[in-house]
Amino acid sequence: MAHGPGSERPGRTHVGADRWSLVAVAGVLAFVAMLDMNIVNVALADIAEGLQVSTAPAQWAVLGYQLPVVALLLPVGRWLDGVGLRPAVLVATCGFGLCSALAAVAPWMAWLIAARLMQGAFGAMLFVLMPVLAIRSVRPGLRGRAMSVPATLGPLGAVIGPAVGGLLLDHLGWRSVFLVKIPFCVLALVVAWRAMPRDGGLRRPDRRSAADALLVASGVAVLLLALTLAADHPAWLVLAIAAVPKLWWWLRGPGGRPVAGVMRATGLFRAHGAVLALAAGFAAMHYLIALHLQRDNGVSATTTGLTVLAFPLGMGLAGQIGGRLADRCGARPVAAAGAAVTAVGLLLLVPLDDGWSPLDVAWRLALAGAGMGLNGGPTQALVMGAAPPGRTATVGSTVQLARSLGFTLGPALATAVWGLTGPDQGVRAGLALAATAACLAVPLLALPGRRPTPVPEKTADAAPAAHH
Prior knowledge:
Layout: H1 20-38, H2 44-50, H3 55-58, H4 60-71, H5 73-80, H6 85-104, H7 109-135, H8 143-172, H9 176-179, H10 182-195, H11 207-230, H12 243-251, H13 256-266, H14 269-295, H15 301-308, H16 310-329, H17 331-349, H18 358-385, H19 392-421, H20 426-446, H21 457-460, H22 462-466
Helix pairs in contact: 1-7, 1-8, 1-10, 4-7, 4-11, 5-7, 5-11, 5-19, 6-7, 6-10, 7-8, 7-19, 8-16, 8-18, 11-12, 11-19, 14-15, 14-18, 14-19, 14-20, 15-18, 16-17, 16-18, 17-18, 17-20, 19-20
């Protein structure tokens, strides 16, 4: 019988004890998948010019990737719990890299959009597999350090995406923003091929799984589209209401009930809320700071980029410290402490005004970034460590969905607050919102939820049984 990515207890390493090369693979894939969320943004004008289309269809070079990534996370997580880890990692990585190459050679816009949609589907697989691969590559006592690698490198990819994209765009043209990820994929493929033992194969999703995927994908896609459009026009948030019936129907059906059962059994609803709140606060802050420095302070794009890089610098330096502390002191207190440091950093940014120098902004960003570094790995270890046997991929998909929605929700809410308070107070109000979200995450992590309960085998297998 083939084992899936979640077919063993998270503490028992299916791929071999302490294989840090596979933890590094998880980190590289996290970096690449998150890099792709933002790196294409800076190339939209050049893509439109190069493929001779208007700006509106060119935006689908970004949305075409983001929509399937978020929309397919939950269905993909359920599917990956029943397949082999090694073939899943190899197929997802190979498909992601191949679609990057197809996007780079696109002769017309329809080709590019199709390549990005397929890449988003493979990206959803990568997002789910990264924490599963990391947690199953080391002993239980090293989970914090292992989970800190993808939890730190992923957001770093998201933050530096625009800077890397701008550099490539200036020197090599827009096609290079797609090609830059291929060497990382090749490296990850080589290491995974050599280091991971054979552990089963893949299987096609059955009709019921495909129907569930279509249902939840359409609902989440509507929600994500509403949040994305609301970044420019807050009235688009009303569109999110249309997602409720689809998601509710799926949640009450054979595909959604096992996911809801796992969430109830693990008692991690609060931790997921904290992940969403911190992601939303980070995304809102990042959006507002860059806008303020360039628009209100007249700071150059280069200086703005260097200032904003203080956040990932602080995050990178604190990431492994957070993992080591989590292994020594426990994941929950370290995760809560990291959220508190992030909240302090964001609160110190709220009085931002035109008299602040880039250095005044940078040290506060570094403090907030250090908090995120302390928080990321321990939170991921807390969530994945509570996953029931056979359901690590499902739990991985839920926490990735919470994070992705937070990244999208943050700028949309910041823009809405900006519009309601006016241009003079908009930045401060938006930063206050970001700080409030981070403050909310502290008690959500510090206070333990309901004690985890065992997941009966018949509950865990209810969805596959219903498919026949």
